[in-house]
Design goal:
Layout (H helix, E strand, L loop, with lengths): L2 H8 L7 E7 L2 E7 L2 E5 L4 E7 L3 H9 L1 E6 L5 H7 L15 E3 L6 E3 L4 E13 L2 E13 L8 H4 L6
Antiparallel strand pairs: 1-2, 1-5, 3-4, 4-9, 5-8, 6-7, 8-9
Bound molecules: flavin mononucleotide.
Flavin mononucleotide binds next to strand 2, strand 4, helix 2 and helix 3.
Length: 159
């Protein structure tokens, strides 16, 4: 395989951008993600790939839950900020306003367009990430708006 071509083609895939959040006691995880898809209508399931060595992965495994907050068009800076690693920026969650979700306690960002809360139903190690399959158990819409896409930001997390 031509690795450069593989990277070029995979970077043509289209993605939305979300803040995945999770909480277990005082331990809070937050990360920007785009490797997310719906994978069942009934029950309503999502699949999310999370870096195997991330702090958020540990908190998701401890709590068995996470939320996905939809970034709005124009929130590139916020997506970049929450995409910095906990290792270097353990305070990143304190830079945003949030409330615990009603179903799971996962942080819901006040300036997100909307959110879903999820309970993990299974997980699978997938190379350098771990794939969490989770059921949507609650959802909310903060306002109408246009969601942020990976393309709008110019960030690259594919390839
Ligand atoms: C635009 C963008 C998209 C990202 N997409 C993902 C993703 O889908 N999955 C993932 O595990 N990390 C993704 N990351 C990297 C994580 O946000 C980052 O490494 C993260 O903060 C690690 O989690 P931690 O801070 O809990 O350790 C993305 C980062 C950016 C900037």
């Amino acid at each position: 395989m031509d690795n450069a071509l593989k990277k070029t083609v995979l970077r043509l895939f289209t993605y939305g951008l979300y803040a995945a959040t999770t909480k277990q006691g005082d331990d809070v995880g937050v990360m920007t993600v785009n490797w997310l898809t719906q994978c069942s209508f009934d029950p309503p399931l999502l699949a999310l790939a999370v870096e195997a060595d991330s702090h958020s992965r540990q908190v998701i495994e401890a709590s068995g839950t996470f939320a996905l907050n939809l970034y709005e068009s124009g929130q590139r800076e916020l997506a970049g900020s929450l995409g910095r690693t906990f290792r270097k920026h353990p305070e990143k969650i304190t830079e945003v306003a949030w409330q615990p979700g009603p179903a799971t306690g996962s942080p819901l960002l006040e300036n997100a367009l909307g959110w879903v809360e999820c309970k993990v139903t299974s997980s699978l190690p997938t190379g350098d990430h771990i794939l969490f399959v989770a059921e949507v158990v609650e959802a909310g819409l903060n306002r109408e708006g246009v969601p942020l896409t990976l393309k709008e930001t110019g960030f690259k997390y594919a390839g």
